[in-house]
């Protein structure tokens, strides 16, 4: 029986290691951590200068999985925006789009973020990001790693804060919205408009914790991912 791959995109400044360090997922699903440019094994590449560049690059990473059969996309925070725009781009191209979109810790596209952090100096920027997320990126505590991570984090935050949706037509894919119940950055009200972006239905799941709830309890998130796929089993493609 083929495992359903769940392709995962990290939050701003993070890389694929965040998901690679998770425990094994439940039977029937596999976690595939997508690696954006500019981090970890792709550190020699420049971070994305624009959303179109990011989506074009990430689409190349998805293609092999998309052509093999059903799959789901998952993204957290800025990664959720990337997952949504990637799903939209794939559905508009000849590459099969995801059969389920899971978005986590993210206001719906078009909901104003109401913050501007990308142009702050380094110390203010790091403090502001940590204040907003309620989470300290481990690499920022190491001076050597900080020099590598900071440009990527700043680029991602800049893209997120300047983001405008590329379209408003609902996608033909069910959406599951994940959120930490104590997320002070993204409210339940911010998440509700996700329902307007799918013709196939939208469901909501809340977890204990704040904006970075999934770093605290990945097992619960993995189980919810598997359940989300199982609610409407992804169809085999002819």
TrEMBL record:
Gene3D superfamilies: alpha/beta hydrolase. The lineage of its organism: Bacteria, Bacillati, Actinomycetota, Actinomycetes, Kitasatosporales. Residues 5-224 form the Thioesterase domain. It comes from Streptomyces populi. One of its GO terms (biological process) is lipid biosynthetic process. Pfam families: Thioesterase. Belongs to the thioesterase family. InterPro entries: AB_hydrolase_fold (IPR029058), TEII (IPR012223), Thioesterase (IPR001031). This is Thioesterase.
């Amino acid at each position: 029986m083929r495992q359903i791959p769940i392709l995962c995109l990290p939050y701003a400044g993070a890389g694929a290691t965040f998901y690679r360090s998770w425990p094994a997922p439940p039977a029937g699903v596999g976690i595939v951590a997508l690696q954006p440019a500019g981090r970890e094994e792709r550190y020699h590449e420049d971070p994305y200068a624009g959303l179109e560049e990011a989506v074009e690059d990430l689409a190349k990473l998805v293609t092999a999985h998309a052509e093999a059969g059903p799959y789901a996309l998952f993204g957290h925070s800025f990664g959720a925006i990337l997952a949504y725009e990637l799903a939209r781009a794939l559905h508009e191209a000849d590459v099969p789009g995801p059969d389920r979109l899971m978005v986590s810790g993210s206001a719906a596209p078009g909901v104003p973020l109401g913050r501007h952090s990308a142009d702050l100096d380094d110390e203010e920027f790091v403090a502001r990001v940590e204040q907003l997320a309620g989470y300290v990126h481990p690499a920022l505590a190491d001076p050597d790693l900080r020099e590598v991570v900071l440009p990527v984090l700043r680029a991602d935050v800049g893209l997120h804060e300047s983001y405008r949706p590329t379209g408003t037509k609902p996608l033909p894919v069910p959406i599951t919205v994940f959120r930490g119940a104590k997320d002070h950055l993204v409210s339940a009200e911010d998440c509700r408009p996700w329902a307007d972006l799918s013709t196939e239905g939208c469901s909501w799941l809340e977890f204990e914790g704040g904006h970075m709830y999934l770093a605290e309890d990945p097992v619960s998130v993995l189980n919810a991912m598997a359940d989300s796929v199982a609610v409407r089993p992804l169809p085999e493609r002819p």
